[in-house]
Amino acid sequence: MSLSVSIAKTHEEKQKIFALRYHIYIDELMRNQAFANHDLKTIQEPWDDTAHLLYVKDDDEIVGTLRMNRKMDGPLEYEELYELEKFTPYYPNSISMTTKLLVLDKYRNSMAASLLCMSAYEIHREWGLQFNIIDTRPHLVRLYQQLGYRFYKENINHPEFGNAIPLVLILDDLDYLKEVRSPFQRIAKKYENKKNTAEFFKKQFPKYYSVKPLFSMSHEVLWNTFTEQVNIDPRKVLTFMSGFSSEEATKILAQLDLLDFERSDVVFEKDDESEGMYCILEGSVEVVIPGTKGNQLLAILSQGEIFGELGFVSKIKRTAKIVVREKSKILLLNQKEFVKLEANYPSLALKLLTNLFSILVNRFNEKHEALMEARAVLDTVLFDYTKDINHNLGENEMSEEKTKGSYVVSEFADSSGELDRLRFQAKAGFDLERKMFDSFGINHGSEILDVGCGPAFFANEVYNAYKPKIIHGIELDTNLINIATKENSSLPAMKFTQGSVYELPLKDASYDLVYSRFVFQHLENPMKGVKELKRVIKPNGLVIIEDIDDGLLFLEPKPDSYDLVQNTSEKIQKELGGDRLIGRKLYAMMKNAGFSKISIKYLPVSSLKVGMEAFIFAAYGFKFDHLKRSGASDEMVNKAKAEFFDLVKNPDAYGTLMIVFAIGHV
Fold first, then answer.
1. CATH number corresponding to 362-665
2. Residue 165 has what pLDDT?
3. pLDDT at 1
4. What is the pLDDT of residue 373?
5. pTM of the predicted protein model
């Protein structure tokens, strides 16, 4: 790679720059551009006529560009938005605007952008200008602050990009460039640097003069800024810092950007790329879904609450629009700074992620029941409408093939490997689920039923942890019953019976607690199974259905074979009567079955917590067998496995899933 920077002088050079803009804005970022020429595939704007266009090239290919406009040469881009007259007497002859900084995706981790910025700064110093104006999106504020740019006014509503943050660079303020450790200071030392422009800024913009980036402060000053000047203990106010020491909290604060927003500002739009997580320090915001009839309000968030965290941990696009309700101060942790945090303080980064997952789980738990209540109304109507039809079609006359569901260990190509996966899943699963099971009130007098117990690896973990009076396992597969009986032969409190979840060979009201783990995703008629669990539970007893929902499963980066493996597994399981999205449907089923009180809880499991190899083994292991059963060759299956497990070597790879617990009280 051999990068060099030049100013475009020829028509051909400028046309290549306009074509690069089109490629990045339209083809890559899919943004609307007012001046896009879709026939020529270029973006040329009126301000280009008087601009100085910089470009960086790698050999003969232009890979990045930047536009510089001096006010003395002509109008600036949407200059009425930037209140430039406030810079008088430096306005108009000593002020400029830099826009359209763009770099091809594959060069964004190279020196291309840095070379453009350094060259632009030096050109401005040669011109003898004092102030340079830019605007940017929230996640890029830190980048420009590190160069020496600072706030000088409220955010603007850019005609093309929406909410944008204006910044100004005082070109000859060497003291400030040193304070923020700007790379421009090396160039600035070659020129005369007067203090009158900094004094002018202090007098003209007193509100912003004293605002310093958090990263530029020492840890002591940073902590005092919050605890004494802002009068906030971040550990008590910011939910994601729960349980942090003051030293840990300060290290996190140094990675954050503090942004001001005015009423009606839009922090980000629905479907924007996720570039970071936000936390409200002061003020409040609305979470809305845009629609043809206006915004639908989902929630109001206030001090200490976070938003954008789902995209932060899973890298999905924004699922809602955030509108500021009142003047607010909001902290931003962008993903690049989190990567640095992971590198410098890995245990602290893990602690932060753990808190984020806890917040996500609590948010799911709070909101999910209200959502399920609404869905249950519709599901009840549909259930009442279809139950007579199901009865007429012989709902109770199920063949043996349908009774066994979409999961039979003996039918796996590698049944011994699947047993190993189940043993691992039980051990690792109970370690993760222990806190959840502790809340179920199991004691030495409890009579417990495990429906779909398999080889009873998990039931054994439950017994060893709580020593209940009895654990009775029900399993359709006689081979697994034999394994369970043999492995627990020394434990008289554990017994096993062959039977179906559809027709449990048990009396009514027999058990204090019934649980069924990862069974209902395989059932063709899960509603009938829910009714059977309710039938055998004692009054005041508890029924727990634990299962998955592939809509809450994420893996990044996705292996090339990801969609093939996922889609094939979903197809195979559906053909066999199963449902990979069963988790979201359990609430309505329990409601229709007549449970008096229902709650939905979520347990996050991430590769950071269990390790990437274990995560892939547990979440995707059986799906490779589905791929094999679909007719895929051994070569294709092995290739898919290799692609997934190669992520173990990727330090940036990340996976997470949510286990759904549907808990019904009788």
1. 3.40.50.150
2. 95
3. 74
4. 47
5. 0.58
CATH number belonging to domain 3-211: 3.40.630.30
Among 458, 414, 455, CA closest to 437: 458
DSSP per-residue codes, 376-400: HHHHHHHHHHHHHHHHHTTTT---H
pLDDT tens per residue, range 440-465: 999 999 999 999 999 999 999 999 99
Specify the domain boundaries for CATH 2.60.120.10 within the chain.
219-361
In the chain, the N- to C-terminal Cα span, in Å, equals 69
- CA–CA separation, 520 and 167 (whole Å): 55
Query: What are the b/e assignments for 10-44, b being 16+ CB within 10 Å?
Result: eeebbebbbbbbbbbbbeeeeeebeebeeeeebbb
pLDDT number for residue 244: 87
- Residue among 296, 276, 278 nearest 286 (CA): 296
Q: Where in the chain is the domain with CATH 3.40.50.150?
A: 362-665
Tokens linked to 627: 């791929």
Among 176, 175, 168, CA closest to 150: 168
Measure the CA–CA gap between 544 and 659, rounded to whole angstroms: 12
Q: What is the pLDDT of residues 340-373, one digit of tens each?
A: 888 888 888 888 887 777 777 666 555 544 445 4
Query: Please, where in the chain does CATH 3.40.630.30 lie?
Result: 3-211
Contact 258, 281 (CB under 8 A): yes
Please tell me the predicted confidence (pLDDT) of residue 145.
95
Which amino acid, one-letter code, is at 637?
V
Which two tokens mark 611? Answer: 């390790």
Q: What is the pLDDT of residue 246?
A: 87
Calpha distance 230→225 (Å, rounded): 6
Residues of the chain with pLDDT under 70: 229-230, 313-315, 361-422, 424-425, 428
Q: What percent of the chain has pLDDT over 90?
A: 57
Question: Does the 219-361 domain belong in CATH 2.60.120.10?
Answer: yes
Question: Which tens digits make up the pLDDT trace of 275-291?
Answer: 889 999 889 999 998 88
**How far lies 455's CA from each of 481, 514, 623, 649, in Å?**
6, 17, 20, 33
User: Are 345 and 287 in contact, with CB atoms under 8 Å apart?
Assistant: no
Query: Helix/strand/coil (H, E, C) string of 593-607?
Result: HCCCEEEEEEEEEEH
**Residues contacting residue 631 through CB under 8 Å, at least 6 positions apart:** none
Cis peptide before 89 (omega within 30 of 0): yes
Residue 345, pLDDT score: 87
Tokens 């924007």 belong to residue: 272
